[in-house]
Specification:
The complex is a heterodimer. By secondary structure, chain A is of the alpha/beta class. Helices cover 36% and strands 13% of the residues of chain A. Chain A has a single domain, classed as Amidase signature (AS) domain (Amidase signature (AS) enzymes), CATH 3.90.1300.10. Chain A contains 14 helices and 11 strands. An 11-stranded mixed β-sheet of chain A has the order 1-3-2-4-6-5-10-11-9-7-8, with helices on both faces. By secondary structure, chain B is mainly α. In chain B, α1 crosses α2. Chain B is flat. The chains are: A alpha/beta, B mainly alpha. The interface between A and B is large, with 68 and 48 residues.
Chain lengths: 480, 95
């Protein structure tokens, strides 16, 4: 078996047992990256230095090569958010999650491509060119953490850290046949995550298995005084809690999520996942989850409003790129931002400014916050009857490159299954559960109540004990 | 809802963005398409629903006001497009 076929935890165990050296592992990762990068463009920056060998007792993941989405600040390593406006910005500090992973012996191989400022569902809005799906290089890998999902799928790294504002971990994980988890809002400190929509943004892992995701979350979750919304980690290890026992677990299948808008192959695959969990003793039943149709418009109003405020910090003064030949400060701001932001980022800033502007605030922004309250209430009611919900992740296979760029509304609508989770702050995981007629991976989403991260991971782990979808690899020119 | 080029100019000015003339019509059309879709929210009765800015009931808490080291000034200035030893430089703003 090749090293890249191991999970992160398996590779960590091999390192600790001395069956493979740190040098061999890093060389294997570098060889995979060198072969895959020209095809899929998953990386924006490659680590130059060979990192010092970590203490292998620091965590089960110590010594395992990984990478960060390029919206996480890394001290001394260029961080671009896939935008022209950040230029060659080199942060003078590490994000909180990066600090914790460094202490746990993570071996970062570089920074991963993404949609510009995490605004997109296909990883095509990057200033540095689109990411391509390792399963079909003519297709998008999903987004916005498309580089993270593609690099894990192609076996370049064993896990990645992404961010999820409306599906940006779960959706690319589904499109690339890997496992991705957005934890409960507040589980992971957002300190050093370049903000898109602060009330929705959350950091999480993309990996080869639910167990790997649990191991990563064990390292990165917990209170950080630099993020006032971060929560104390509940006692106990998520990894140690993976029993695979789902007997008596009540799982709801929201009927509205399996309607006409869903590709038939995806419906079969997700319902098949429900059967696997039922066979292991879970009680699976159809349920209602009202208001789901209102989540996408409410999400885009709230996310764009927050983005228009958050992105006002990019003004060409404190960091990043500045437009040349400006006569006054107003022109400097305006020219820098106009030259530095791409089309989708501008569109969302304008939308956000519009919904917050005098005369429209009540009709759009305030209305969206009311709808958010109703959506959270609908989830609360569902979780009185069920321990978890199971839904699709995407309505259809990932689009061909270029297909959705000219039609932003169509791209927004593809987020229908993922954005309600962010509005309600819930934990949710995307796991591979099958393939469509063209051999493209399909994902299923497990959603838990707030702070129910352990139950979500355990149900996914139970599924992965029974199935092999998460171990499938894309064929392609990436063989070493 | 109709989005005119004048409205695009207005929100662009608020956003410190300047769209080229040839992009304004397309941006207005795209925004109109998206905003019209968002109007579906108006079919939902939200009378009496408290707007929710945060999903968890967070409250402000007070802590002791202690001075703790922040970033080194030189490190922060090193990333600026035009710094001197002590400050970010910008074009003259006061005559």
């Amino acid at each position: 078996m090749e090293l890249y076929e191991l999970t992160a935890l398996e590779l960590g165990a091999c390192l600790r047992r001395g069956e493979v050296s740190q040098e061999e592992v890093c060389a294997a990762a570098r060889a995979r990256i060198a072969a895959a990068q020209p095809e899929n463009n998953a990386f924006l920056t490659l680590a130059e230095e060979i990192p010092p060998a970590p203490d292998l007792t620091a965590s089960p993941l110590a010594g395992v090569p990984m990478a960060y989405k390029d919206n996480l600040c890394t001290r001394g390593v260029r961080t671009t958010c896939a935008s022209k406006i950040l230029g060659n910005f080199v942060p003078p500090y590490d994000a909180g999650a990066v600090e914790r992973l460094s202490a746990a012996g993570a071996v970062p191989m570089g920074k991963l491509n993404m949609d510009e400022f995490a605004m997109g569902s296909t990883s095509e809005t990057s200033f540095y060119g689109p990411v391509k799906n390792p399963w079909d290089l003519t297709r998008a890998p999903g987004g916005s953490s498309g580089g993270a999902a593609a690099a894990v799928a192609a076996g370049e790294i064993w896990y990645a850290i992404g961010s999820d504002t409306g599906g940006s971990i779960r959706q690319p994980a589904a499109c690339c046949g890997v496992t991705g988890m957005k934890p409960t809002y507040g589980a992971v400190s957002r300190y050093g995550l370049i903000a898109y929509a602060s009330s929705l943004d959350q950091i999480g892992p993309i990996a080869r298995s639910a167990a790997d995701c649990a191991a990563v979350l064990d390292v990165i979750r917990g209170r950080d005084r630099r993020d006032g919304t971060s929560l104390e980690a509940p006692a106990g290890s998520l990894l140690a809690g993976l029993t695979g026992d789902v007997r008596g677990l009540r799982i709801g299948l929201p009927a509205g999520c399996f309607g006409d808008g869903l590709d038939p192959a995806s419906r079969r695959a997700v319902q098949g996942a429900a059967e696997v969990l039922r066979a292991r003793g879970a009680r699976v039943e159809a349920c209602e989850l009202p208001l789901a149709d209102y989540a996408v418009p409410a999400y885009y109003i709230i996310a764009c409003a927050e983005a228009s405020s958050n992105l006002s910090r990019f003004d060409g003064v404190k960091y990043g790129r500045r437009a040349e030949h400006c006569r006054d400060l107003g022109e400097l701001y305006c020219k820098t931002r106009t030259e530095g932001f791409g089309a989708e980022v501008k569109r969302r800033i304008l939308l956000g400014t519009f919904v917050l502007s005098a005369g429209y605030y009540d009709a759009y922004y305030k209305k969206a916050l009311q709808v958010k309250a109703l959506i959270k209430d609908a989830f609360d009611r569902a979780f009185r009857q069920f321990d978890l919900l199971l839904t699709p992740v995407t309505p259809a296979a990932p689009p061909r490159l270029g297909e959705s760029l000219g039609d932003p509304l169509r791209m927004y609508l593809s987020d229908v299954y993922t954005v309600p989770v962010n509005l309600a702050g819930l934990p949710a995981l995307s796991m591979p559960c099958g393939f469509d007629g063209q051999g493209l991976p399909i994902g299923a989403q497990l959603i838990g109540p707030a702070l129910g991260d352990a139950a979500v991971l355990n149900a996914a782990h139970a599924f992965q004990l029974e199935t092999g979808y998460h171990k499938k690899r894309p064929k392609g020119g990436t063989a070493p | 809802m109709k989005i005119t080029e004048e409205m695009v100019d207005y929100v662009a000015a608020l956003s410190r963005l300047a769209l080229p003339e040839e992009e304004k019509a397309d941006m207005a059309a795209r925004l109109e398409q998206i905003v019209s879709y968002m109007d579906v929210l108006n079919t939902l009765d939200t009378g009496g629903v408290e707007p929710m800015s945060h999903v968890f009931p967070l409250k402000n808490v007070l802590r002791e006001d202690r001075v703790i080291p922040s970033q080194a000034r030189a490190e922060l200035l090193a990333g600026a497009p035009e710094p001197d030893e002590a400050a970010f430089l910008v074009p003259r703003t006061v005559e």
